[in-house]
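Running co-folding for zinc ion.
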Amino acid sequence: MKQALVFCAAALACLCLCGRPHKRPAEAGIAVFVSIVPQKYFVDKISGGRVNCLVMVPPGTNVHSYEPHPAQMSLLSTARAYFAVGLEFEEPWLPKFASMAPGMLVVHTDRLVRKLPAVDNDEHAPANGGRGLDPHIWLSPELVKLQASSIAAGLARIDTAHALAYKKNCSLFFAEIDSLERQLRAILPCDSGGRRKAFLVFHPTWGYFAKDYCLKQVSIEVEGKEPSPRTMRAILDTARYYKIHTVFVQPEFSRRSAEVIARELGAGVVEADGLAYDWKNTLLSVARKIGEQ
Ligand SMILES: [Zn+2]
């Protein structure tokens, strides 16, 4: 908790030193944008409902190939801040967003995050036109703290009158994350010995989560597509080696090969929505499913 306060305070001190505060907005109806739904959860926690947080990528959509809708562009003109998370579509679109909303503060919430290399063969690998880094930083509690401190600093900058409230809420959110981490560690202890617990998933969204909790993520897709029969056999061998009993499916990706693999293994198919709003309970339910193995 103390560490959380120091961290949030440091983020806000940097804000004071690093940039002039933007003009104070009208008291009512501050709108901000985020790229994906879990970020809305973070913003809501830190703003305490003081801002109206809009989401760019609708639920059930592939976040890596998203194209903003024209109607969203006009909504953007009302936004005071855009909290980017480092997804591919942001790079070409952020300058367009900024031109739609002059004076909108753009905050790169992945700025403090050291990213892991992308999984071989997935759509984020350079060979497949990706940037070579794993973009799914919102599924690691520790990394969410870094994103949260950027969000708190950004909110304080567009709404200086409530900077202290954002700082306090950020500290409370850090304490909540600390408690979540304790629960996750109890479910998935790193020092249990023996072979790492593993899980199967179509798209490799859970890499940071796997690293944090000493798990092995095995992904089914190859270059963003369904695997060949040969690759399916290799995945089945790996799954048998790790005694995987659960195959996770994601609402925005194909279930077909996951279901075929689950049938072969006699495993259960469970939805793991890494883009759900209820971030905390999503992490807990995924941990419990893996922990049961
Ligand atoms: Zn992804």
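Result summary
The CA atoms of residues 12 and 18 lie 10 Å apart.
The beta strands are 30-34, 51-55, 79-84, 105-108, 198-201, 216-219, 246-249, 268-271.
Job closed.
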